[in-house]
Amino acid sequence: MSQSGFNPSATESWKTLKNAAAKMSAFGIADAMTDERVSRYQAQCAGIYLDFSKNRIDDAALAGLFGLLNDSPFASLRAAMFDGEAINNTEQRAVLHTALRASNAELGARGLAAEAQQIAEQKQHIKTLSEKIRAGQWLGATGKPITDIVNMGIGGSDLGPKLASEALKEFAQPGLRCHFVANVDGELIRSTLTDLNPETTVVIVASKTFTTQETLLNANTAAAWFTERLGLAQPFSSPHFIGVTAAPDTAIELGFLPEQLLQFWDWVGGRYSMWSSIGLSIAISIGFERFEAMLDGAREMDQHFLTAPLEQNMPVILALLGIWYRNFLGAPSLAVIPYCERLEQFPFYLQQLDMESNGKGVNREGAKLDYQTGPVVWGLTGTNGQHSFFQLLHQGDHVVPVDFIGLIRDSLSLPEHHKVLQANMLAQSAALMSGKKASSAEPYRNYPGNRPSNTLLLDELTPKSFGALVALYEHKVFVQGAVWNINSFDQWGVELGKGIAKDLLSGDANLDASSRSLIGKMGW
Ligand code: F6P
Protein backbone atom coordinates (compact mmCIF):
# COMPACT_ATOMS: atom_id res chain seq x y z
CA MET A 1 0.00 0.00 0.00
CA SER A 2 2.68 2.55 0.90
CA GLN A 3 6.31 2.80 -0.12
CA SER A 4 7.74 1.62 3.16
CA GLY A 5 10.36 3.95 4.55
CA PHE A 6 9.70 6.73 2.06
CA ASN A 7 11.81 9.76 2.95
CA PRO A 8 10.82 12.86 0.96
CA SER A 9 14.02 14.67 1.90
CA ALA A 10 16.10 11.93 0.24
CA THR A 11 14.44 12.34 -3.17
CA GLU A 12 15.80 14.14 -6.23
CA SER A 13 12.60 16.23 -6.21
CA TRP A 14 13.47 17.52 -2.74
CA LYS A 15 16.90 18.63 -3.99
CA THR A 16 15.31 20.28 -7.03
CA LEU A 17 12.91 22.09 -4.74
CA LYS A 18 15.73 23.24 -2.43
CA ASN A 19 17.46 24.74 -5.47
CA ALA A 20 14.21 26.30 -6.68
CA ALA A 21 13.66 27.81 -3.22
CA ALA A 22 17.17 29.29 -3.16
CA LYS A 23 16.32 31.21 -6.32
CA MET A 24 13.01 32.40 -4.95
CA SER A 25 14.47 35.33 -3.01
CA ALA A 26 14.53 37.15 -6.34
CA PHE A 27 10.94 36.27 -7.15
CA GLY A 28 8.34 39.03 -6.83
CA ILE A 29 4.73 37.87 -6.83
CA ALA A 30 3.48 41.25 -8.03
CA ASP A 31 6.05 41.30 -10.88
CA ALA A 32 4.94 37.84 -12.01
CA MET A 33 1.25 38.73 -11.87
CA THR A 34 -0.52 38.61 -15.24
CA ASP A 35 -3.99 37.66 -16.45
CA GLU A 36 -2.45 34.52 -17.85
CA ARG A 37 -1.00 33.57 -14.43
CA VAL A 38 -4.38 34.12 -12.79
CA SER A 39 -6.14 31.99 -15.40
CA ARG A 40 -3.71 29.11 -14.80
CA TYR A 41 -3.22 29.42 -11.04
CA GLN A 42 -6.81 28.66 -10.13
CA ALA A 43 -9.02 25.66 -9.46
CA GLN A 44 -12.67 25.15 -8.71
CA CYS A 45 -15.03 22.56 -7.31
CA ALA A 46 -18.44 22.36 -5.60
CA GLY A 47 -19.12 26.10 -5.57
CA ILE A 48 -15.62 26.98 -4.34
CA TYR A 49 -13.12 28.93 -6.43
CA LEU A 50 -9.44 28.96 -5.48
CA ASP A 51 -7.08 31.68 -6.72
CA PHE A 52 -3.51 30.67 -5.83
CA SER A 53 -1.78 33.17 -8.08
CA LYS A 54 -0.66 35.37 -5.14
CA ASN A 55 1.96 32.86 -3.99
CA ARG A 56 5.74 32.93 -4.11
CA ILE A 57 5.77 30.21 -6.67
CA ASP A 58 6.49 29.71 -10.35
CA ASP A 59 5.99 26.90 -12.83
CA ALA A 60 9.38 25.34 -12.09
CA ALA A 61 8.73 25.14 -8.35
CA LEU A 62 5.22 23.82 -8.94
CA ALA A 63 6.59 21.14 -11.24
CA GLY A 64 9.07 20.19 -8.51
CA LEU A 65 6.24 19.88 -5.99
CA PHE A 66 4.22 17.65 -8.29
CA GLY A 67 7.39 15.62 -8.80
CA LEU A 68 7.68 15.18 -5.03
CA LEU A 69 4.03 14.19 -4.83
CA ASN A 70 4.52 11.57 -7.52
CA ASP A 71 7.57 10.19 -5.72
CA SER A 72 5.56 9.85 -2.51
CA PRO A 73 3.08 7.11 -1.50
CA PHE A 74 0.24 9.62 -2.06
CA ALA A 75 -1.62 7.81 -4.88
CA SER A 76 -1.54 4.37 -3.26
CA LEU A 77 -2.41 5.80 0.15
CA ARG A 78 -5.36 7.75 -1.27
CA ALA A 79 -6.73 4.59 -2.87
CA ALA A 80 -6.09 2.65 0.33
CA MET A 81 -7.98 5.22 2.40
CA PHE A 82 -11.07 5.19 0.18
CA ASP A 83 -10.93 1.36 0.02
CA GLY A 84 -10.91 1.01 3.80
CA GLU A 85 -7.41 -0.39 4.30
CA ALA A 86 -5.95 0.08 7.78
CA ILE A 87 -3.81 3.11 6.89
CA ASN A 88 -3.82 4.28 10.53
CA ASN A 89 -1.01 1.83 11.16
CA THR A 90 -0.29 2.55 14.84
CA GLU A 91 -3.88 1.71 15.75
CA GLN A 92 -4.52 -0.76 12.90
CA ARG A 93 -7.61 1.15 11.83
CA ALA A 94 -9.22 2.01 8.54
CA VAL A 95 -9.87 5.71 7.88
CA LEU A 96 -13.31 5.87 6.34
CA HIS A 97 -14.86 9.26 6.97
CA THR A 98 -15.28 9.49 3.19
CA ALA A 99 -17.57 6.42 3.36
CA LEU A 100 -20.01 8.44 5.49
CA ARG A 101 -20.78 10.62 2.47
CA ALA A 102 -20.36 8.07 -0.34
CA SER A 103 -23.21 6.39 -2.22
CA ASN A 104 -24.08 2.75 -1.56
CA ALA A 105 -23.00 1.90 -5.10
CA GLU A 106 -19.55 3.43 -4.52
CA LEU A 107 -19.16 1.60 -1.22
CA GLY A 108 -20.32 -1.68 -2.74
CA ALA A 109 -17.77 -1.32 -5.54
CA ARG A 110 -15.05 -0.85 -2.93
CA GLY A 111 -16.07 -3.95 -0.98
CA LEU A 112 -17.55 -1.86 1.81
CA ALA A 113 -21.12 -3.17 1.71
CA ALA A 114 -21.09 -4.03 5.43
CA GLU A 115 -20.00 -0.49 6.30
CA ALA A 116 -22.64 0.89 3.91
CA GLN A 117 -25.29 -1.03 5.83
CA GLN A 118 -24.05 0.25 9.21
CA ILE A 119 -23.92 3.81 7.91
CA ALA A 120 -27.46 3.58 6.48
CA GLU A 121 -28.81 2.30 9.82
CA GLN A 122 -27.22 5.13 11.77
CA LYS A 123 -28.35 7.74 9.24
CA GLN A 124 -31.89 6.46 9.64
CA HIS A 125 -31.46 6.83 13.40
CA ILE A 126 -30.21 10.42 13.00
CA LYS A 127 -33.15 11.18 10.70
CA THR A 128 -35.80 9.71 13.01
CA LEU A 129 -34.42 11.30 16.13
CA SER A 130 -33.77 14.73 14.65
CA GLU A 131 -37.18 14.85 13.00
CA LYS A 132 -38.94 13.83 16.22
CA ILE A 133 -37.16 16.54 18.19
CA ARG A 134 -37.78 19.18 15.49
CA ALA A 135 -41.46 18.21 15.23
CA GLY A 136 -41.94 18.57 18.99
CA GLN A 137 -42.70 14.83 19.29
CA TRP A 138 -39.73 13.98 21.52
CA LEU A 139 -41.06 14.74 24.95
CA GLY A 140 -39.17 15.37 28.17
CA ALA A 141 -39.95 13.51 31.41
CA THR A 142 -42.79 15.92 32.19
CA GLY A 143 -44.34 15.60 28.72
CA LYS A 144 -43.02 18.83 27.18
CA PRO A 145 -41.41 19.20 23.72
CA ILE A 146 -37.73 20.08 23.47
CA THR A 147 -36.50 23.65 23.06
CA ASP A 148 -32.79 23.28 23.87
CA ILE A 149 -30.10 20.82 22.86
CA VAL A 150 -26.78 20.74 24.70
CA ASN A 151 -23.98 18.96 22.82
CA MET A 152 -21.50 17.74 25.42
CA GLY A 153 -18.25 16.63 23.87
CA ILE A 154 -14.74 17.91 23.29
CA GLY A 155 -12.22 17.97 20.42
CA GLY A 156 -13.69 16.16 17.42
CA SER A 157 -16.90 15.55 19.35
CA ASP A 158 -17.42 19.30 19.65
CA LEU A 159 -15.55 21.36 17.08
CA GLY A 160 -17.26 20.05 13.92
CA PRO A 161 -20.84 20.24 15.25
CA LYS A 162 -20.17 23.67 16.77
CA LEU A 163 -18.63 24.99 13.54
CA ALA A 164 -21.47 23.61 11.39
CA SER A 165 -24.21 24.90 13.68
CA GLU A 166 -22.71 28.40 13.62
CA ALA A 167 -21.88 28.39 9.92
CA LEU A 168 -25.35 27.20 8.95
CA LYS A 169 -27.38 29.09 11.54
CA GLU A 170 -29.37 30.63 8.70
CA PHE A 171 -31.11 27.26 8.46
CA ALA A 172 -31.61 26.65 12.17
CA GLN A 173 -35.12 25.83 13.32
CA PRO A 174 -36.59 28.80 15.18
CA GLY A 175 -37.36 28.00 18.79
CA LEU A 176 -34.80 25.19 18.94
CA ARG A 177 -31.47 26.31 20.35
CA CYS A 178 -28.17 24.42 20.30
CA HIS A 179 -25.56 24.90 23.03
CA PHE A 180 -22.07 23.46 23.20
CA VAL A 181 -20.31 22.50 26.39
CA ALA A 182 -16.78 21.26 25.75
CA ASN A 183 -14.48 22.55 28.46
CA VAL A 184 -14.62 21.11 31.95
CA ASP A 185 -14.60 24.65 33.38
CA GLY A 186 -17.53 24.50 35.80
CA GLU A 187 -18.51 28.07 35.01
CA LEU A 188 -19.39 27.03 31.47
CA ILE A 189 -21.77 24.23 32.36
CA ARG A 190 -23.20 26.19 35.27
CA SER A 191 -23.97 29.26 33.18
CA THR A 192 -25.26 27.15 30.29
CA LEU A 193 -27.66 25.18 32.48
CA THR A 194 -28.75 28.23 34.48
CA ASP A 195 -30.42 29.64 31.38
CA LEU A 196 -32.19 26.38 30.51
CA ASN A 197 -35.40 24.69 31.54
CA PRO A 198 -34.62 21.02 32.36
CA GLU A 199 -38.12 19.98 31.28
CA THR A 200 -37.40 21.00 27.68
CA THR A 201 -33.66 20.26 27.47
CA VAL A 202 -31.91 17.29 25.87
CA VAL A 203 -28.21 16.64 26.47
CA ILE A 204 -26.31 14.82 23.76
CA VAL A 205 -23.25 13.20 25.31
CA ALA A 206 -20.89 12.94 22.33
CA SER A 207 -17.74 10.93 22.88
CA LYS A 208 -16.11 8.37 20.63
CA THR A 209 -14.52 6.56 23.56
CA PHE A 210 -17.00 7.53 26.27
CA THR A 211 -14.03 7.74 28.63
CA THR A 212 -13.04 11.38 28.13
CA GLN A 213 -12.64 12.95 31.56
CA GLU A 214 -14.06 16.38 30.71
CA THR A 215 -17.12 15.04 28.91
CA LEU A 216 -17.99 12.50 31.58
CA LEU A 217 -17.68 15.05 34.39
CA ASN A 218 -19.87 17.52 32.47
CA ALA A 219 -22.41 14.75 31.78
CA ASN A 220 -22.51 13.79 35.47
CA THR A 221 -22.99 17.43 36.50
CA ALA A 222 -25.85 17.74 34.00
CA ALA A 223 -27.36 14.48 35.31
CA ALA A 224 -27.25 15.86 38.86
CA TRP A 225 -29.03 18.99 37.62
CA PHE A 226 -31.86 16.89 36.14
CA THR A 227 -32.11 14.91 39.38
CA GLU A 228 -32.24 18.04 41.47
CA ARG A 229 -34.65 19.95 39.24
CA LEU A 230 -36.92 17.14 37.95
CA GLY A 231 -36.41 14.47 40.60
CA LEU A 232 -35.11 11.99 38.02
CA ALA A 233 -33.48 9.01 39.75
CA GLN A 234 -31.74 7.77 36.56
CA PRO A 235 -31.31 10.81 34.30
CA PHE A 236 -29.08 8.96 31.76
CA SER A 237 -32.00 6.55 31.18
CA SER A 238 -34.50 9.37 30.68
CA PRO A 239 -35.54 11.15 27.46
CA HIS A 240 -33.17 13.96 28.48
CA PHE A 241 -29.99 12.09 27.53
CA ILE A 242 -28.87 10.79 24.15
CA GLY A 243 -25.44 9.24 23.69
CA VAL A 244 -23.29 9.25 20.56
CA THR A 245 -20.32 6.93 20.72
CA ALA A 246 -18.18 4.21 19.20
CA ALA A 247 -18.22 2.46 22.59
CA PRO A 248 -21.92 1.71 23.20
CA ASP A 249 -21.23 -0.88 25.90
CA THR A 250 -19.46 1.71 28.02
CA ALA A 251 -22.39 4.12 27.62
CA ILE A 252 -24.91 1.40 28.49
CA GLU A 253 -22.91 0.55 31.63
CA LEU A 254 -23.28 4.18 32.66
CA GLY A 255 -27.05 3.88 32.31
CA PHE A 256 -27.72 5.10 28.76
CA LEU A 257 -30.63 3.39 27.00
CA PRO A 258 -29.58 1.36 23.91
CA GLU A 259 -32.41 2.92 21.89
CA GLN A 260 -31.10 6.39 22.78
CA LEU A 261 -27.58 5.64 21.65
CA LEU A 262 -26.28 6.55 18.22
CA GLN A 263 -23.14 4.88 17.04
CA PHE A 264 -20.11 5.36 14.92
CA TRP A 265 -17.03 3.19 14.56
CA ASP A 266 -13.31 3.12 15.19
CA TRP A 267 -12.81 3.68 11.45
CA VAL A 268 -14.06 7.26 11.86
CA GLY A 269 -11.38 9.45 13.44
CA GLY A 270 -12.67 11.88 16.08
CA ARG A 271 -11.59 14.98 14.13
CA TYR A 272 -13.19 13.55 10.98
CA SER A 273 -16.47 12.61 12.64
CA MET A 274 -18.92 15.46 12.00
CA TRP A 275 -20.31 13.47 9.05
CA SER A 276 -21.26 10.59 11.38
CA SER A 277 -23.75 10.40 14.25
CA ILE A 278 -21.55 12.99 15.95
CA GLY A 279 -23.37 15.38 13.59
CA LEU A 280 -26.70 14.67 15.34
CA SER A 281 -26.85 18.20 16.77
CA ILE A 282 -26.27 19.57 13.25
CA ALA A 283 -29.18 17.52 11.87
CA ILE A 284 -31.39 18.65 14.75
CA SER A 285 -30.49 22.25 14.10
CA ILE A 286 -30.70 22.46 10.29
CA GLY A 287 -32.82 19.40 9.51
CA PHE A 288 -31.82 16.01 8.11
CA GLU A 289 -32.17 17.03 4.45
CA ARG A 290 -29.72 19.87 4.86
CA PHE A 291 -27.40 17.60 6.88
CA GLU A 292 -27.44 15.33 3.83
CA ALA A 293 -26.75 18.32 1.57
CA MET A 294 -23.67 18.98 3.71
CA LEU A 295 -22.58 15.37 3.13
CA ASP A 296 -23.26 15.82 -0.62
CA GLY A 297 -20.95 18.83 -0.73
CA ALA A 298 -18.21 16.83 0.98
CA ARG A 299 -18.83 13.94 -1.44
CA GLU A 300 -18.43 16.28 -4.41
CA MET A 301 -15.06 17.30 -3.00
CA ASP A 302 -14.17 13.61 -2.47
CA GLN A 303 -14.92 12.92 -6.13
CA HIS A 304 -12.89 15.92 -7.21
CA PHE A 305 -10.02 14.76 -4.99
CA LEU A 306 -10.18 11.28 -6.50
CA THR A 307 -10.61 12.19 -10.15
CA ALA A 308 -9.48 15.74 -10.98
CA PRO A 309 -6.06 15.93 -12.66
CA LEU A 310 -3.47 16.72 -9.98
CA GLU A 311 -2.69 20.14 -11.51
CA GLN A 312 -6.35 21.15 -11.03
CA ASN A 313 -6.93 19.23 -7.83
CA MET A 314 -7.78 21.77 -5.14
CA PRO A 315 -6.75 19.80 -2.02
CA VAL A 316 -3.55 18.72 -3.76
CA ILE A 317 -2.69 22.30 -4.75
CA LEU A 318 -3.32 23.67 -1.24
CA ALA A 319 -1.27 20.83 0.26
CA LEU A 320 1.71 21.32 -2.06
CA LEU A 321 1.75 25.06 -1.47
CA GLY A 322 1.75 24.35 2.26
CA ILE A 323 4.71 21.97 1.85
CA TRP A 324 6.53 24.58 -0.23
CA TYR A 325 6.23 27.17 2.55
CA ARG A 326 6.86 24.75 5.41
CA ASN A 327 9.80 22.78 4.04
CA PHE A 328 11.42 25.10 1.52
CA LEU A 329 10.60 28.74 2.35
CA GLY A 330 10.81 28.41 6.14
CA ALA A 331 7.28 29.43 7.14
CA PRO A 332 6.25 27.69 10.37
CA SER A 333 2.63 28.81 10.44
CA LEU A 334 -0.50 29.26 8.34
CA ALA A 335 -3.12 31.93 9.02
CA VAL A 336 -6.71 31.20 7.97
CA ILE A 337 -8.90 34.28 7.79
CA PRO A 338 -12.58 33.83 6.90
CA TYR A 339 -14.35 37.04 5.89
CA CYS A 340 -17.63 35.73 7.26
CA GLU A 341 -18.50 35.93 10.93
CA ARG A 342 -20.42 32.64 10.70
CA LEU A 343 -17.09 30.95 10.00
CA GLU A 344 -15.53 32.29 13.19
CA GLN A 345 -15.04 28.73 14.46
CA PHE A 346 -13.27 27.57 11.31
CA PRO A 347 -9.69 28.35 12.45
CA PHE A 348 -10.36 26.47 15.72
CA TYR A 349 -11.76 23.53 13.79
CA LEU A 350 -8.73 23.52 11.48
CA GLN A 351 -6.34 23.63 14.42
CA GLN A 352 -7.45 20.19 15.53
CA LEU A 353 -7.83 18.85 12.00
CA ASP A 354 -4.38 19.93 10.88
CA MET A 355 -2.27 20.01 14.02
CA GLU A 356 -3.58 16.81 15.63
CA SER A 357 -3.21 15.06 12.27
CA ASN A 358 0.14 16.33 11.07
CA GLY A 359 1.96 17.55 14.18
CA LYS A 360 4.16 14.45 14.11
CA GLY A 361 7.87 13.78 14.63
CA VAL A 362 8.28 10.21 13.35
CA ASN A 363 7.33 8.65 10.03
CA ARG A 364 4.92 5.79 9.39
CA GLU A 365 7.70 3.32 10.15
CA GLY A 366 8.60 5.05 13.43
CA ALA A 367 11.84 6.69 12.26
CA LYS A 368 12.64 10.22 13.44
CA LEU A 369 12.09 12.82 10.73
CA ASP A 370 14.78 15.10 9.36
CA TYR A 371 12.24 17.54 7.89
CA GLN A 372 9.40 19.68 9.23
CA THR A 373 5.76 18.58 9.29
CA GLY A 374 2.47 20.33 10.11
CA PRO A 375 2.44 24.10 10.54
CA VAL A 376 0.94 26.04 13.42
CA VAL A 377 -2.55 26.90 12.16
CA TRP A 378 -4.20 29.98 13.53
CA GLY A 379 -6.57 32.74 12.52
CA LEU A 380 -9.58 34.90 13.17
CA THR A 381 -12.33 36.38 11.05
CA GLY A 382 -11.67 39.45 8.95
CA THR A 383 -11.97 42.31 9.42
CA ASN A 384 -11.40 41.67 13.16
CA GLY A 385 -7.93 40.26 12.53
CA GLN A 386 -6.99 43.39 10.57
CA HIS A 387 -7.32 45.38 13.78
CA SER A 388 -5.23 42.92 15.72
CA PHE A 389 -2.39 40.87 14.20
CA PHE A 390 -2.36 42.07 10.59
CA GLN A 391 0.35 44.56 11.55
CA LEU A 392 2.71 41.59 11.85
CA LEU A 393 1.50 40.09 8.59
CA HIS A 394 2.30 43.32 6.73
CA GLN A 395 5.50 44.48 8.41
CA GLY A 396 6.70 41.75 10.78
CA ASP A 397 9.80 39.75 10.03
CA HIS A 398 7.94 36.52 9.26
CA VAL A 399 6.58 34.84 6.19
CA VAL A 400 3.02 33.93 7.15
CA PRO A 401 1.08 32.41 4.26
CA VAL A 402 -2.61 33.29 4.54
CA ASP A 403 -5.73 31.51 3.34
CA PHE A 404 -8.43 34.13 2.81
CA ILE A 405 -11.97 32.77 2.62
CA GLY A 406 -14.73 34.97 1.25
CA LEU A 407 -18.32 34.72 0.04
CA ILE A 408 -19.49 35.97 -3.36
CA ARG A 409 -23.08 36.29 -2.15
CA ASP A 410 -24.44 36.43 1.38
CA SER A 411 -28.18 36.66 1.71
CA LEU A 412 -27.90 37.05 5.48
CA SER A 413 -25.74 40.13 5.30
CA LEU A 414 -26.73 43.64 4.20
CA PRO A 415 -25.59 44.60 0.68
CA GLU A 416 -23.39 47.48 1.80
CA HIS A 417 -21.89 45.51 4.69
CA HIS A 418 -21.19 42.55 2.44
CA LYS A 419 -19.37 44.72 -0.07
CA VAL A 420 -17.30 46.46 2.60
CA LEU A 421 -16.38 43.12 4.20
CA GLN A 422 -15.30 41.43 0.97
CA ALA A 423 -13.56 44.59 -0.29
CA ASN A 424 -11.43 44.48 2.84
CA MET A 425 -10.44 40.91 2.11
CA LEU A 426 -9.47 41.72 -1.47
CA ALA A 427 -7.60 44.81 -0.29
CA GLN A 428 -5.61 42.84 2.29
CA SER A 429 -4.44 40.17 -0.12
CA ALA A 430 -3.49 42.86 -2.66
CA ALA A 431 -1.65 44.91 -0.01
CA LEU A 432 0.23 41.90 1.33
CA MET A 433 1.38 41.06 -2.17
CA SER A 434 2.13 44.52 -3.56
CA GLY A 435 3.48 46.28 -0.50
CA LYS A 436 4.45 49.94 -0.74
CA LYS A 437 7.83 51.64 -0.70
CA ALA A 438 8.26 54.50 1.75
CA SER A 439 10.74 57.36 1.64
CA SER A 440 13.93 56.85 3.62
CA ALA A 441 12.71 59.53 6.03
CA GLU A 442 9.74 57.36 7.00
CA PRO A 443 10.98 53.75 7.01
CA TYR A 444 8.16 52.73 9.38
CA ARG A 445 5.77 53.37 6.51
CA ASN A 446 7.47 50.77 4.33
CA TYR A 447 5.45 47.70 3.36
CA PRO A 448 7.83 45.05 2.00
CA GLY A 449 5.04 43.17 0.19
CA ASN A 450 5.65 39.87 -1.59
CA ARG A 451 3.63 38.19 1.17
CA PRO A 452 1.76 35.14 -0.06
CA SER A 453 -1.90 34.22 0.14
CA ASN A 454 -4.57 31.98 -1.33
CA THR A 455 -8.09 33.28 -1.83
CA LEU A 456 -11.01 30.88 -1.62
CA LEU A 457 -14.36 32.22 -2.76
CA LEU A 458 -17.55 30.35 -1.93
CA ASP A 459 -20.53 31.16 -4.17
CA GLU A 460 -22.49 31.35 -0.94
CA LEU A 461 -22.46 29.62 2.43
CA THR A 462 -24.85 26.70 2.05
CA PRO A 463 -24.81 23.24 3.63
CA LYS A 464 -23.31 21.99 0.37
CA SER A 465 -20.50 24.52 -0.03
CA PHE A 466 -19.77 24.27 3.68
CA GLY A 467 -19.43 20.48 3.45
CA ALA A 468 -17.13 20.87 0.45
CA LEU A 469 -14.98 23.45 2.27
CA VAL A 470 -14.40 21.18 5.27
CA ALA A 471 -13.65 18.16 3.04
CA LEU A 472 -11.21 20.32 1.05
CA TYR A 473 -9.10 20.89 4.16
CA GLU A 474 -9.46 17.25 5.29
CA HIS A 475 -7.93 16.13 2.01
CA LYS A 476 -5.30 18.84 2.05
CA VAL A 477 -4.12 17.51 5.42
CA PHE A 478 -4.18 13.97 4.01
CA VAL A 479 -1.97 14.89 1.03
CA GLN A 480 0.58 16.58 3.27
CA GLY A 481 0.67 13.58 5.60
CA ALA A 482 1.23 11.27 2.60
CA VAL A 483 4.14 13.36 1.29
CA TRP A 484 5.67 13.62 4.76
CA ASN A 485 5.10 9.87 5.18
CA ILE A 486 3.51 10.32 8.59
CA ASN A 487 0.40 8.76 10.10
CA SER A 488 -2.12 11.63 10.02
CA PHE A 489 -4.74 9.59 11.84
CA ASP A 490 -3.38 8.89 15.30
CA GLN A 491 -2.77 11.40 18.14
CA TRP A 492 -0.46 9.80 20.67
CA GLY A 493 0.91 13.20 21.63
CA VAL A 494 -2.19 14.02 23.66
CA GLU A 495 -1.97 10.99 25.95
CA LEU A 496 0.95 11.86 28.25
CA GLY A 497 -0.66 14.96 29.76
CA LYS A 498 -4.01 13.19 30.17
CA GLY A 499 -2.28 10.46 32.21
CA ILE A 500 -0.41 12.93 34.41
CA ALA A 501 -3.66 14.85 35.12
CA LYS A 502 -5.30 11.60 36.26
CA ASP A 503 -2.34 10.71 38.47
CA LEU A 504 -2.26 14.20 39.88
CA LEU A 505 -5.95 14.08 40.77
CA SER A 506 -5.57 10.71 42.45
CA GLY A 507 -2.52 11.93 44.37
CA ASP A 508 -0.23 9.45 42.57
CA ALA A 509 1.83 11.84 40.49
CA ASN A 510 5.58 11.88 40.99
CA LEU A 511 6.25 15.36 39.68
CA ASP A 512 9.14 17.82 39.43
CA ALA A 513 9.88 20.62 41.94
CA SER A 514 8.17 23.35 39.91
CA SER A 515 4.97 21.34 39.49
CA ARG A 516 4.99 20.34 43.19
CA SER A 517 5.34 23.98 44.15
CA LEU A 518 2.45 24.97 41.89
CA ILE A 519 0.29 22.21 43.38
CA GLY A 520 1.14 23.63 46.79
CA LYS A 521 -0.05 27.08 45.65
CA MET A 522 -3.37 25.46 44.71
CA GLY A 523 -3.69 24.47 48.35
CA TRP A 524 -4.05 20.72 47.55
O1 F6P B 1 -7.57 14.20 23.43
C1 F6P B 1 -7.72 14.17 22.05
C2 F6P B 1 -8.96 13.44 21.63
O2 F6P B 1 -8.74 12.07 21.73
C3 F6P B 1 -9.36 13.85 20.24
O3 F6P B 1 -8.69 13.17 19.26
C4 F6P B 1 -10.82 13.60 20.28
O4 F6P B 1 -11.48 14.28 19.24
C5 F6P B 1 -11.17 14.13 21.65
O5 F6P B 1 -10.07 13.75 22.45
C6 F6P B 1 -12.44 13.64 22.23
O6 F6P B 1 -12.48 12.25 22.36
P1 F6P B 1 -13.83 11.47 22.58
O7 F6P B 1 -14.72 11.73 21.40
O8 F6P B 1 -13.45 10.03 22.69
O9 F6P B 1 -14.47 11.98 23.84
Topology:
Blueprint: H1 12-23, H2 29-32, H3 35-40, E1 42-45, E2 48-51, H4 59-71, H5 74-83, H6 104-109, H7 113-134, E3 148-152, H8 159-167, E4 177-181, H9 186-194, E5 201-206, H10 213-230, E6 241-245, H11 248-253, E7 261-263, H12 280-286, H13 288-307, H14 314-328, E8 333-338, H15 346-358, E9 376-378, H16 390-395, E10 402-407, H17 415-434, E11 453-458, H18 463-484, H19 495-505, H20 513-522
Parallel strand pairs: 3-4, 3-5, 5-6, 6-7, 8-9, 8-10, 10-11
Antiparallel strand pairs: 1-2, 2-11
Residues 153-157, 207-209, 212, 215, 270-271, 356, 491, 494 line the site of 6-O-phosphono-beta-D-fructofuranose (F6P).
Task: Describe this structure as you would to a colleague.
It is a single chain. The protein is α/β, with parallel strands linked by helices and 524 residues long. Helix content is 46%, strand content 10%. It has 20 helices and 11 strands. The chain has helices at residues 12-23, 29-32, 35-40, 59-71, 74-83, 104-109, 113-134, 159-167, 186-194, 213-230, 248-253, 280-286, 288-307, 314-328, 346-358, 390-395, 415-434, 463-484, 495-505, 513-522, and strands spanning 42-45, 48-51, 148-152, 177-181, 201-206, 241-245, 261-263, 333-338, 376-378, 402-407, 453-458. The strands form 2 sheets. Strands 1-2-11-10-8-9 form a 6-stranded mixed beta sheet, with helices on both faces. A 5-stranded parallel beta sheet has the order 4-3-5-6-7, with helices on both faces. Helix 8 runs parallel beside helix 12. The longest helix has 22 residues, at 113-134. The structure holds 6-O-phosphono-beta-D-fructofuranose. 6-O-phosphono-beta-D-fructofuranose binds next to loops.
